[in-house]
Amino acid sequence: MYPFIRMAKELVINRNAAKLPPTGTHVSHHMCMPWDIDLWAELNNGRTLTIYDLGRIPLAQRTGLIKVLRRQRWGLTVAGVSVRYRRRIRMFDVIELHSRLVGWDDRFLYIDQSMWRKDGICANQALFRTAVTSSDGIVAPERVAKSLGTKTVSPPLPGWIQAWIDADAQRPWPPERH
Questions:
Q1: Which residue, among 167, 84, 77, 78, has the nearest Cα to 128 in the 3D structure?
Q2: What is the dihedral of CA 28, 126, 7, 133, to 10 degrees?
Q3: Strand, coil or helix: 88
Q4: What is the pLDDT of residue 170?
Q5: Which partner for 24 in 17, 20, 58, 101 could form a disulfide, CB atoms 3.0-4.6 Å apart?
Q6: Where do the H-state alpha helices sit in the chain?
Q7: For this UniProt entry, which segments traverse the membrane (predicted)?
Q8: How far apart are CA 72 and CA 134, in angstroms?
């Protein structure tokens, strides 16, 4: 089940947090609960993606994007993700979650997120391709930036993100059936 109560908690505790610029970093803290674990008593890989929501949505709130989405009747969706799992997060471990919009291209926003253990080691990192949507489809990020009252030109995307975009463009869609 989706962690609605945890999300509500994050939105409430961040409602009066300092505003962030569009590319600012939102930092939050979370505990790996018994319902987040897999058979090996560590954070389930699917639940990892859900916990990343607990950073992305408050990031959108602190940058003013949530207000723009409501005003324009737009939505927010994930269009792709690449995750690196490097260290275990065990039940009751507390993690520090960092969430930041890195930049955008003509269709998508790219958000870098990472989970850090108490010992300062990065447990995992994810690059999300997200999109703002309307009833007409994807809203151009330039239009979203303009609605936020910020620069409409993206900061340069790092080479590793551009390489991921280029590599993903080579994948066939729809995929072959096996």
A1: 78
A2: 130
A3: coil
A4: 96
A5: 20
A6: 4-13, 45-63, 65-72, 141-148, 159-169
A7: none
A8: 8
| 3-class DSSP state of 108 | coil
Query: Which region, left, alpha or beta, applies to residue 41 given φ > 0 means left and ψ of -120 to 50 means alpha?
Result: left
State yes or no: pLDDT of 165 exceeds 90.
yes
Q: 34, exposed or middle or buried, with CB in 10 Å at 0-12, 13-18, 19+?
A: exposed
Interval 39-79: pLDDT, tens: 999 999 999 999 999 999 999 999 999 999 999 999 999 99
Pick one of 3.10.129.10, 1.20.1250.20, 3.20.20.140, 3.40.50.720 as the CATH number of 4-169. Answer: 3.10.129.10
At 117, is the secondary structure helix, strand, or coil? strand
Structure tokens of 162?
A: 């551009």
